[in-house]
Description:
Layout: H1 6-18, H2 32-55, H3 60-93, H4 99-114, H5 118-143, H6 152-155, H7 162-165, H8 173-178, H9 185-210, H10 219-225, H11 237-264
Helix pairs in contact: 1-5, 1-9, 1-11, 2-3, 2-9, 3-4, 3-11, 5-9, 5-11, 9-10
Amino acid sequence: MPKKYSLHKFSLCFLFVLATLAANSPIYHIGLFSLILCGAISLVLIFLLCILLNLGQKNKTVFYITTCCVALAAALGAVTGFLDFFTFLKTVLLPQSSDILLFVALVLLVLFFLKTPFDALFKYSLFTALICALIIALCFISGIKTFDFNALNTALTPDFQFDTALYFLPIIVLPFFIKCEAGNTKPMFLGTGAGVAGVLLCSLQSILILGADNDITFPYLKAVGVISSGSLFTRLDGLVYFLFFVTTIIRITVCIKAIAKIVFQKGVKVQ
Length: 271
């Protein structure tokens, strides 16, 4: 894509990482220190993958190993994203609806986005990323009065869990999807870093409102759900619903498009 699309690529990476918030796993349980570590490792991984993708242009072994790793990470991201969002719809948003109808509707929605051209997907990301950033800022500021800073004593204790770290692994799909070319790497790294910062900020809010010891699914949603914001918004849950939808659909779409490129277009050809 042209260099003028740098902000679009930044936005897509931001939304892709932010989809971790919609995971049906209380990621804030691992503590802020471990979350920061996961974010740092994610940035290192995409840096290494950029190197491997470039080496893969000249070495078939590196090429096949790299594309296999990307395909596995993409499959993980697509499956977990789909199942977590389906669980969210079934348990939180539409608990009385038929499982089959919800599943079919979600599949059709994913198929619609899969048919979206790359340019349209990037423009969609730019528009929605700004809205998501404003939502996070609004929810954080609105929740300050309910913060319990004593919860930080537990939250700062490292408690690394492997299954939680898996939610960050699909990030390595981004260098393959966007391509590690001149003009692409900077917005990709900045967007990924912004996404990690967004996850940390939302996790911090969840900890300060709910505490770090509660076993709660979709903790960010529950944390925002207790906030009242005067006459403008009685509750802010609806904003989080939008956030979950936008970020999850981006992650699923990017992951499946990456798999399709590997399977049907044989990824990046070896020179």
